[in-house]
Amino acid sequence: MHVARNEINSGFTLHIQTPSGLQDFPATVPGSIHTDLIAAGVIGDIRINGTEVEQAWIRNADSTYKTNVSVTGPGKHELHFAGLDTLATVSINGQERLVTENMHRSFVIEIDPNDSIDLQIDFKAPLPEAIARQEQMGIYPNPYNMPYNYFRKMACSFGWDWGPITGSSGIWKPITLTTWDSGILDSVVLVTDVVNSIPTLKVATHGRGEATKVRIKISGNHEAEFEATLNSTATFQLPGFDLWQPRGFGDPVLYTVIVQLIDSHGEVVDESIKRVGFRHVELDQSNFNDRQMFAIMVNGQRVWARGVNWIPDDPFPHRVTRADYAKKIEDLYSVEVNAIRVWGGGIYESDDFYDLCDEKGIIVWQDFLFACAAYPEDQKTIAEVTAEATEAISRLANHPSLVLWCGGNECLEGFQHWDWQEPLAGKPWGSKYYFEILPNLLKQIDQSRAYIPGSPFSTLSEDVKDFASGTNHIWDVWNERGYQRYEEYSPSFAAEFGYNGPGSWQTLTKAIGKSNLDSKDPQLATHQKAFDGMDKIAAGLKREFVSEFTEGPAWYFAAQLVQARAVEVGLKHFRSQFETCSGSVLWQYNDMWPALSWAVKDSAGSRKLSWYAMREAYRPRVLHFSGENRALVIVNDSAQVWRDQLYLIILDELGNILETKNQAIEVAAHSKHTITMRGFIPDQGYVVAQLGDIRTARSVSDKPVAVLNKVDAELTAELNGSCVEVTIRSHSFVFEFSLLPELVAHEVVSVSAQRLTILPNERKTIEIFASTIEDAQLIHASIKDIAWSLNRLVGSPAK
């Protein structure tokens, strides 16, 4: 008989103690107690307008899921639990069969054939148990007042400096009733590489039963077929097969691999279907001068990482669908991103995520799930981590996009720099995972990827924060200094840096149930999780503007604008150092709830002004006025020579043109050219550069802006269904011209271009794409109200 796998997803009931008493609710599987309570109308959705306060009781509530499962017919029967979050006890017909405490791994139990079984899963509330373990085991420090590091649960469900505390529980991945007889494939691990210019495929099978013959079929633009034996590892050479190439280096060619288990009658009893790509990955960590490279190499080519950091896309990750992933991966592809780092305080994403990156040629850096904390090294935790990592490495091995495993996020830095020694009192703190267990598992299962023990880390210095090698995190710019300070850094690989700003006006006003945003509003502040976040935003505004903005559209535009400038300057600076710096991975791309955070795209999918700054900075060709002297750096990361006429326009502090110059420019492929501006620009004012269709502009001085000429322009709008086409005809210099349709629209809206620099007598056209015709009509009627610029901002009354 062929293996039968049937998902168990109906008839579930959630039994939970609520503030109103013990209650039962219909339950959805996969799901969580939060989403079941949302569906029942007990709580609001924290991703839209629910609050932590109304849901705080859930963190301390035990819960039970029940259903009845029909089990009939011949063969062996098993229940496969792909993911239980987290402290679960599974009982069948009243008998305890399984106790778990790791949401990042799967479990299997055998069951006897019966007409039906009563399946019950009891979940302990995570917070009380975590507190109890902290009392038993002693303090393992982390930056938050939440003991998230005592068992293997998504760390950010205990809250983070950009996300809410949920502390949820539930059956977050499918339960499958599996029936088999003569044989079953428990796992198929596919590892690809290129050895001596020949693509290779290593196939490791694990299974049970009498059937032992394995057939391997490879299809695509080339085909091959091989045979192997169950519970063995075989490596096959595939000369002539095309390579998977990362974005910018060719096509990301994929092949389908079907692994079949064959019984003694020649019948297929089980099979696994996965896609692979053939590529060779290594790190270039060669020495030069007193520094060392840190470059990701794929097929012998250095991939300069234009990257973003990715956090869980929903507080309840079971809700993220393939369509959700596809929308975001396509969005990242549209802004020239070629690298994504999956951060270690979240989850190993579903195969859908990596499938889409495979298809797009986007390389992936995957953290093992350790973040900003010391972790116990008792035998129980070591066993859980080993099982979890073994499963993750095996499951993700076929994905060519995954090029780098990392031991964890900021755990090494925490041990060195965050005063852990006193609370640890000599206890082991997790180093065994990063330097022994994880790299050894990779050696055993999959040697085709690079591995680093953590980020940040250094190979030239004992101090992991040394910038001359390894990967680097830059947070003092946001925490203490202006974004211009990015230009003082020369990292080997900028793996984390970012600047905080408000999500969309529409997203935040919905979340707090108000029509206005006020930075002094305590309710708005509940959506700012960064330490002293509102004060740091205010300090950033004070560094940029003489006037003080604290509420309304002026504050909102100013705060988003400063975040966008920080993103632009940071990304462009690191790209301008491409000889010594091999990547910039912006913190962060996405949000999981309505927030003031470092994200460039908020939880509703709205693009912040910083998203447009990232798009500009990640183009293959970039212009950047760099440093205090505003030298013009021309970066050509394309494969063609950049040959065009350069125009330089110098303006005074009011925006009046003082001088225009032009000259022919030629920049070789994958190189840069620098033009000094010293002696050419005044102490105050603005400088604009145009080379071909690329334009950049920057204030000459870092001093706060006090004045700028008012906008002298005609603004017209044409309505076409759900699209509004806006044309501006300017008679004056307009800086940072942006349209903010979210101020009036009810649903998500996008704009074709933002932060435009418009010179006198120029005409620019921008398209606004609304979700509904009704929103488009509102936008069309409010064009003058939603049109903002630096000119308008500094002319606004301070408030």
TrEMBL record:
Keywords on record: Glycosidase, Hydrolase, Signal
Ranges of residues in domain Beta-mannosidase-like galactose-binding: 24-173
GO molecular function: beta-mannosidase activity
Gene Ontology annotations of biological process type: carbohydrate metabolic process; glycoprotein catabolic process
Family: Belongs to the glycosyl hydrolase 2 family.
Catalytic function, reaction form: Hydrolysis of terminal, non-reducing beta-D-mannose residues in beta-D-mannosides
Every Glycoside hydrolase family 2 catalytic domain range: 296-450
Primary enzyme class: hydrolase
Coiled-coil ranges from the UniProt annotation: none
Keyword hit for Magnesium: no
InterPro entries: Beta-gal/glucu_dom_sf, Beta-mannosidase-like_N2, Beta-mannosidase_GH2, Galactose-bd-like_sf, GH, Glyco_hydro_2_cat, Ig-like_fold, Ig-like_GH2
Pfam families cross-referenced by the UniProt entry: Glyco_hydro_2, Glyco_hydro_2_C, Glyco_hydro_2_N2
Domain Glycoside hydrolase family 2 immunoglobulin-like beta-sandwich intervals: 212-279
Protein source organism: freshwater metagenome
EC numbers: 3.2.1.25
Keyword Hydrolase: yes
Annotated protein name in UniProt: beta-mannosidase
